[in-house]
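Q: Could you write out the predicted structure for this multi-component system? I'm mainly interested in how the pieces pack against one another.
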Amino acid sequence: MMKQIGVTVLTGAIVATSFGSIDASAHQQKHRLLDPDRVVNIAHRGASGYAPEHTMTAYQLSHKKLKADYIEIDLQMTKDGKLIAMHDETVDRTTNGTGAVKDKTLAEIKRLDAGSWFNTANPEYAKAEYKGLRVPTLDEIFDTYGKHANYYIETKSPEVYPGMEEKLLKTLQRHGLSSDRVKPGQVMIQSFSQESLLKVKQLDARLPLVQLMDAATVKAMTPEALDQLQTYAVGLGPSFKGLTRENTAMIRERGLLLHPYTVNEKADMERMLEYGVTGVFTNYADRFNEVMREMKKK
Ligand code: G3P
Ligand code: CA
């Protein structure tokens, strides 16, 4: 007997969501990324629990070995206008350099070691090969995976980087990843900035947008705020700490996707699935797959 993990209300009809439908064949799943009755596994900054975040090594691990559905990419922009994958506005935490990304050229950033910090911070997962890893550009990520991966891209600090959205859309076009050339949901755009998402919508109205949200905001969510959000976004990406059974139901009743971040502990993964989320951002994509398999057996 499959265990029910959530309830989806679509156009007034209540549709029970079970692992029976979520666990359809891999082929089917590949083509159902936006379906609200499936659960997606989003590798947060790549396999960032096991390898240095936002390096090609972390992406490769999540994509090939941990079998995540999406590679999550945070974007920053260099002084010479190149989009790179990095979470912070400065290089301090994740490289051996210091200073703001916006004040450095790509050539300067490419000289930095983006892997050694991980070995120091995570001795249990340290590997010699992580030393000297480089910060990837968005172009390099797309050159590597092309249409063979799904991307969940965040415009970070868009107010610091005027023109970031236009560059992102041009980069997608250059790699044949515009919304008209990929399967629905293969490229998702996420941001905490509503303004940034609206810019993306103006540039390509068909790209699915996800509004990120902190815990306090999702806790205070109202039907009116969701009405507004639904005018531009297909889903919400809130901190999992702000989700309850009740607000999850309120969000899901509208058919919105719900992808909480960053869900790393098994117990939290189970709780999120029981509430009825449609995916999670996690540093441990393998763990989330395992939790889904275990819950399916119950
Ligand atoms: O994009 C979802 C989640 O990654 C948001 O938080 O700070 O890890 O980018 P952050
Ligand atoms: Ca992010």
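A: Regarding packing and overall arrangement: Residues 44, 74, 87, 154, 190, 212, 237, 261-262, 281 surround SN-glycerol-3-phosphate (ligand 1) (CB under 6 Å).
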